[in-house]
Amino acid sequence: MLAKHKLARINELAKKAKTACLSAEEALEQAKLRREYIQAFRKAMTDMLHTVTVIDPNGNDVTPKKLKESQRRRFH
């Protein structure tokens, strides 16, 4: 995930934006940090989904075909 100091800076800029205007540099920094955060979140979510297997109540593997193919490509 994203470094703690970057998360703290995102929150700091968000609080400042609610109470006052951000400078142009701060707005660019905020946008860059938010993009980094979203990218890290998506990577973590994708990594987590690659470990998922869906089992129905009867014990059958019903993992979607698209996910199985993605898992095979990633691990083989």
Automatic annotation (TrEMBL):
Keywords: Cytoplasm
GO CC, one annotated term: cytoplasm
Coiled coil: none
Start-end of Basic and acidic residues biased regions: 63-76
Location in or out of the cell: Cytoplasm
InterPro entries: DUF896
Spans annotated as Disordered: 54-76
Family: Belongs to the UPF0291 family.
Annotated protein name in UniProt: UPF0291 protein B4109_1134
Organism listed in the record: Geobacillus stearothermophilus (Bacillus stearothermophilus)
